[in-house]
Design a protein that fits this description.
heterodimer; A: 435 residues; alpha+beta; Cytochrome Bc1 Complex, Chain A, domain 1; 2 domains; 17 helices; 47% helix; globular; B: 450 residues; six-stranded mixed β-sheet; five-stranded mixed β-sheet; 41% helix; 17% strand
């Protein structure tokens, strides 16, 4: 039994040692502070070119929430040399796909395109890092688009709506309590001047990471990036975010009623991020709880007892500041949210008192490791993963992450469950369908 | 890893996300393909028992993706058994002659792999992803699922209630509600008009016997396509597939034919009232199959109208008027019929304006030729983005089984590129005049219409 469990680990350890990120990534920091990571991947004649800015809703102030995301929309609205709408147009007519996203911590832009079009993309990204138009007329029309986006994601989406409510009670000092898209009144109010100031503050080369993976020669590409991005002057160091969320001293709870067919239960605990070794244990624990159909929550709540249509959990490993470990469940018709909350809590309590089995632990480790191998299949995913690790310290952490995962023991999991999942650190959200 | 909270600048699709059912993602990718190079996409051979085997070697990353497609989709549901193929797909992995469902889950997840099965309109597909070192185990599980499913009574009952609950919940997603209603209007009288997942009532009537009978009848080597893509050679794939599927024999009785969809007598409008701040607008009509030469101008027309962020609808409705976050059009070709649809979500007060804009832009497509730059952009995007759409083993495998099932041939990618390249402004206008006249579109509105 023991051999059966250990064998796959050893084999996969061998398999992945040949794919160490640190061995082949060409990393450089330009004189203006721009961080550049390049990885050659000659399998297909394509490249994923990504620019990640170290700014998200985390950097916003009360009264102007949603500004990072609003600015992300405006990044497609042109510069003096590439007018409004030209960015996406140029990418598409060169057969490329582009998009962007804003999270609590970062704003990321990507273009996936034929490798021989890389020069064009370098030129476009460097241009909008420095020369965004931010025309007030365009801002006015895009404001309406963002408002519609908020309606889609939050106002009219029960799960998005409840998630926003739970975040907002879980944080009282830190900006993680505000929604990424912003509160409706802030979206309506924020001025072109504020958006411009935000752009000038955070969209500077010394606050960005450029990552490219694909069919190019790294040395040549680095030269091109130096030539084009190197002209952009270094900016002032963006202001540090100083807010620290105080320890939670008692359970918090929000109950909302909305037009919906089934209730939803969310539970969230404050947990440490990647800076703590406990975060890796939490990552393993999250996988044991909700990684696949053999995981605890699925097998017990969805499969065996049919109490939930869905149940899961999610850890915020990559978060820049300590964030939340989420638990959720959608009760089956006829089941109450109270019942599901009790059952989710029981699973958490069980983790504190009873060690996970050898099989569960080995499975979770194998799943985490396999997920890394699967990501290697796409240049886009390879680039994203490098960026995510770089943003929490260094891309090479990708390699030590798996070593840390392998070192986790059942006792570690019991310890972190006891340390971090105290009832008084919990926030609970319940959505009840309006009858 | 805590990355679930991210907001994208633009959204595509979304019409069928809520049920967690296979919605033809693979098939949609077939709509926009043209090969960047002439190398064959895959090795193809017909095994002695009739299985079509497709193998694409991608040696660089030690993973393998496998798809087994069986022509057993919802289009074959008996009229009084809507949701049968979907239920069959859902229970397929829930027990085999050798293993219970939980044993199967544990076996594949222990090595970090996955085995899934699900139905769409045309087929049931079993999908497996594993690291190369676990290929034998993964294929064992796939073959057990395909060849010896036991459909345990208790598992059928479980899935029935799960699917019923998922259908209930999907009623809160306006995109799903609209898409479901639109299919009913567009494919009135054809099996494509019925929801793949069925209704809560129809699913409640399904029994284990229905599932067993349906699968026994539909599952046969002659209508099965297997794709093996990744760190594997053709010889190895053939050997491993033959070892597991080689002795599967063909039944003699022929399968009943499904008629092609024909256009309904008239376009219709339907309104669904929901207490929402935003209204979903969805236009649709039947369109053309990929085997029709007009399919290529149609794909270009769709891209110019609402395909990307340079499209006419995106520019007018979103960029210039700020009326929507999401507005797009798409062609959805299936085996026995195809649809063309336009969708937008806007604040309730602006519904008449957006409806008018969409109608005007549909009409303009047939009234005047598209500008040279629009045409070039659409063609270059459709041709040039091909390699991006096949950038993982899983996507290649999905593409291969879809192309085979539709009878498009492995040269489809090259032919697509060539045909798209030849489309002229006159072609687009001719096809648009035929298919994009606003009066021919059914319309569904979901929102606060009171």
């Amino acid at each position: 039994m023991r051999i059966a469990i250990l064998l796959p680990l050893i084999v996969s350890l061998l398999a992945s040692s040949s794919a160490r990120a640190a061995d082949r990534v060409v990393a450089a920091t330009l004189d203006n502070g721009l961080r550049v990571l390049l990885l050659e991947d000659q399998r297909s004649p394509i490249v994923s070119f990504q620019v990640w800015y170290r700014v998200g809703s985390r950097n916003e102030q009360r009264g102007s929430t949603g500004i990072a995301h609003f600015l992300e929309h405006m990044m497609f609205k042109g510069t003096p040399s590439h007018g409004p709408k030209q960015f996406a147009r140029l990418v598409e007519e060169n057969g490329g796909q582009d998009n962007a996203f804003t999270s609590q911590d970062v704003t990321s832009y990507y273009v996936d395109i034929a490798a021989d079009k890389l020069d064009l993309v370098i030129d476009l990204e460097a241009d909008r890092m420095q020369n965004l138009l931010l025309d007030p007329k365009e801002i006015a029309s895009e404001r309406e688009v963002v408002i519609e986006e908020r309606r889609t994601r939050t106002e009219d989406d029960p799960s998005g709506f409840l998630g926003e409510e739970v975040s907002s009670i879980a944080f009282k000092a830190h900006a993680y309590g505000a929604p990424i898209i912003g509160w409706m009144d802030d979206i309506k109010r924020v001025t072109p001047e504020e958006i411009r100031a935000f752009y000038k503050t955070y969209y500077v080369p010394n606050n960005a990471v450029v990552v490219a993976v694909g069919a190019f020669r790294a040395a040549d590409t680095l030269e091109k990036i130096k030539k084009r991005f190197g002209r952009i002057p270094r900016g002032k160091v963006p202001p540090p975010m100083l807010a620290v969320e105080p320890a939670q001293n008692g359970e918090r709870r929000v109950v909302v009623r909305k037009q919906a067919e089934l209730p939803i239960v969310y539970m969230a605990w404050h947990v440490p991020n990647h800076r703590s070794d406990d975060a890796v244990a939490l990552e393993v624990l999250s996988t044991i709880l909700s990684g696949g159909r053999a995981s605890r929550l699925y097998r017990d709540l969805v499969y065996q007892r049919q109490l939930a249509l869905e149940a899961g959990g999610d850890n915020a490993y990559f978060s820049i500041d300590p964030n939340l470990f989420w638990f959720w469940a959608t009760p089956m018709p006829g089941q109450t949210p109270e019942k599901l909350e009790t059952e989710l809590s029981a699973h958490m309590e069980r983790l504190k008192t009873e060690p996970v089995t050898d099989e569960e632990l080995a499975r979770a480790k194998n799943q985490l490791e396999a997920a890394f191998v699967y990501q290697e299949d796409s240049v886009h995913q390879r680039a994203s993963l490098l960026a995510r690790f770089e943003l929490i310290g260094a891309f090479a952490l990708k390699d030590s992450f798996l070593a840390k995962v392998r070192a986790i023991t059942a006792a570690d999991l019991t310890r972190v469950a006891r340390t971090w999942f105290a009832p008084e650190r919990k926030s609970v959200g319940v959505l009840l369908p309006k009858s | 890893m805590g990355t679930r909270v991210e907001l994208r600048a633009r959204r595509r699709g979304g019409a069928c996300r809520a049920l967690g059912l296979a919605c033809g993602a693979a098939l949609a990718s077939v709509t926009a393909c043209g090969s960047a190079d002439a190398a064959p996409l895959a090795h193809r051979e017909v095994l002695p028992n009739g299985i079509v085997l497709l193998v694409a070697e991608r040696p660089a990353v030690p993973i393998v993706a496998v798809r087994v497609l069986t022509r057993a989709g919802a289009v074959y549901d008996p009229a009084d058994r809507a949701g049968l193929a979907n239920l069959t797909g859902a229970v397929l992995t829930r027990g085999t002659a050798k293993r219970t469902g939980p044993e199967l889950d544990s076996a594949i997840e222990f090595v970090g792999g996955s085995v899934e099965a699900g139905a769409n309109r045309d087929s049931i597909t079993v999908s497996m992803t594993a690291q190369k070192k676990d290929l034998a185990l993964g294929l064992d599980l796939v073959s057990e699922v395909v060849l010896t499913p036991t459909f345990p009574e208790a598992e059928v009952a479980r899935k029935v209630s799960e699917i019923q609950a998922a259908i209930k919940r999907s009623e809160e997603d306006p995109g799903t509600v609209a898409a479901r209603a639109l299919s009913r209007l567009v494919f009135d009288g054809h099996a494509y008009g019925r929801p793949v997942e069925g209704t809560r009532e129809s699913v409640g009537r399904l029994t284990r016997d229905d599932v067993v009978k349906f699968y026994r009848e539909r599952s046969r080597p002659g209508t099965t396509v297997v794709a093996v893509v990744g760190a594997v050679t053709v010889d190895e794939a053939r050997r491993e597939i033959m070892a597991r599927f080689g002795s599967w024999s063909r039944p003699a009785d022929p399968l009943a034919a499904v008629p092609a969809a024909t256009a309904p007598a008239a376009a219709r409008e339907e309104t669904v009232t929901r207490e929402l701040t935003q209204t979903t607008i969805m236009f649709g009509r039947q369109a053309i199959l990929q085997t029709d030469p007009d399919y290529f101008p149609m794909a270009v027309a769709s891209y110019v109208l609402g395909g990307g962020s340079a499209s006419r609808l995106y520019t007018r409705v979103r960029e210039e008027s700020g009326l929507a976050y999401s507005v797009y059009s798409w062609v959805a070709p299936w085996r026995y019929g195809a649809s063309f649809a336009v969708s937008a979500q806007t604040r309730t007060a602006e519904v008449p304006r957006v409806v008018t804009m969409i109608r005007e832009e549909l009409a303009r497509m047939g009234r005047e030729p598209v500008a040279e730059r629009e045409l070039t952009l659409a063609k270059q995007y459709l041709i040039g983005s091909f390699p991006l759409r096949l950038d993982t083993s899983g996507k290649v495998a999905d593409f291969l089984v879809a192309v085979e099932d539709r009878g498009l041939g492995l040269d489809y990618a090259d032919r697509y590129k060539e045909r798209i390249g030849r489309v002229t402004a006159a072609d687009v206008q001719r096809v648009a005049a035929k298919y994009l006249t606003p009066a021919a579109f059914s319309l569904v509105i979901v929102g606060d219409t009171k």
